[in-house]
Recover the amino acids of this structure.
């Protein structure tokens, strides 16, 4: 029994502070058992009691640690659920700092922008767009950018951008039809771009899009100028 106990203790209960007490008790117990006689026996019994108490304490401490770990794991899983699987509608939009020319767009670990329509007043002159990636995935896996271009150029421009890779932000170089573009960002990152509304042609439809491969057919929205 004692050899079993010490083996179990050494293997699984090593980090617990009472382990030294248990081991001392075991050593005394085996010494006493060798000596024989009533004194030795009662000493052995006393040590046995101490050992049982110590073992009980160790058991409780292990249970506490297990509870703590369980709690932390559950908490971590909760957090993950919220960030990775949230079905809440993404937060919109523009001008939430009171400036209608200052647009905020949020993205996460899904192929979606927080809004599918942006409208700015013509009085803006210059528009600033800030793209914030609130997800956890890196740009290589779930990169997003915000690119403004004429709607009728989308397939051609986005298609040509594939060849530029992540380094080239999945955009063709020297493409005059691109009005504005942020770089591709990953989880936890943010990027901004400013552009003049003078770059937009009257009577032409514009869209914003993410040119990450596989995204541009889904991640897009209308961009319009009012007034
Ligand atoms: Co994207």
């Amino acid at each position: 029994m004692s050899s079993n106990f010490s083996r179990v203790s050494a293997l699984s209960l090593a980090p617990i502070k009472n382990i030294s007490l248990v081991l001392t008790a075991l050593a005394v117990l085996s010494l006493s058992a060798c000596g024989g006689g009533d004194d030795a026996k009662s000493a052995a019994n006393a040590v046995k009691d101490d050992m049982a108490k110590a073992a009980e304490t160790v058991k409780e401490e292990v249970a506490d640690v297990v509870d703590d770990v369980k709690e932390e794991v559950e908490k971590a899983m909760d957090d993950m659920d919220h960030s990775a699987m949230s079905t809440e509608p993404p937060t919109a939009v523009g001008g939430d700092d009171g400036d209608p020319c200052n647009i905020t767009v949020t993205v996460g670990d899904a192929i979606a922008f927080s809004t599918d329509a942006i409208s700015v007043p013509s009085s803006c002159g210059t528009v600033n767009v800030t793209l914030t990636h609130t997800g956890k995935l890196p740009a290589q896996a779930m990169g997003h950018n915000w690119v403004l271009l004429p709607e009728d150029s989308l397939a051609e421009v986005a298609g040509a951008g594939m060849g530029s890779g992540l380094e080239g932000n999945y955009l063709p170089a020297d493409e005059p039809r691109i009005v504005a573009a942020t770089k591709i960002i990953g989880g936890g990152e943010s990027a901004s771009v400013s552009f003049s509304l003078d770059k937009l042609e009257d009577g032409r439809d514009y869209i914003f899009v993410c040119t990450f491969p596989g995204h541009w057919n889904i991640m897009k929205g209308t961009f319009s100028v009012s007034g």
In short: The longest helix spans residues 38-85. The pocket of cobalt (II) ion is lined by residues 111, 144, 210, 212, 215, 219 (CB under 6 Å).
